[in-house]
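Team,

Forwarding the record for the chain on the shared tracking sheet. I've put the sequence and predicted structure together so nobody has to dig through attachments.
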Amino acid sequence: MKTLLDGIKEKLAKKETVLGSHVGFRENSFTELLGDVGFEFVWIDAEHGPLDKSDILNHIIAARAAGAVSIVRVPWNEPVFVKSILDMGVEGIVFPMIRTAEEARLAVSSCMYPPEGIRGAGTRRANKYGLGDKNFYNEQAHNTVWKIMQIEHIDNVETLEEILSVEGVDTIVVGPNDFASSMGKLGKVRDPEVLAAYDKIGEIATAHNIPWGVSMGYDETTFTEWVDRGATWFGLGFDFLYIAAGAQNTLKQAKAVIEKKKK
């Protein structure tokens, strides 16, 4: 049976663009809302912020309800934490700060059962709480999860070729903020040297003919640049940014009305 993730993979294979968004608040209604808006995936951020495993599960369930693929960025490349997230039935795992091929191999291994990997056997929601075909799931589990390496360090200019050559790496995603920080340019994501490094990452990734993406806020200039570099999937915006922007706009407009009435 075709899954939501299969749909995304098919689009990327045809070089079509896939758009998703991020959540960091605990309230899973944000995930449902983003799916209803039309984002194709929701990136559930467990690296930064307050999310615990119960929160993550609720977000994964909400994504499915809204017809969006669920992707979880785990706090670190740590197999024990990854194991429980996989058992929740997530469709993608983002492994942060992957700097070497060795780290990429550990990440991939975390998502695969022996003998190919080290994932422990204890499936829950991932196989419909035991209602699914256990043998089929065990054989196909490694194909049901998008294994995503996050590229967010200047070292990757030298190591990305090796990372992309690791068997089982499905895709990569660039993290511009930490990438700039690793160059000693915290918050300066549009510094000329940083932009030049992004260009090199884009050249390497595109040359490997593997789908790759970017996690970012949104502004038209930056988005266009990443499209031009060859990125085909994007995590755009964040729940708290949407709220802040909407709140600021409402307050600004209300104040403008009051000021106008004073004249």
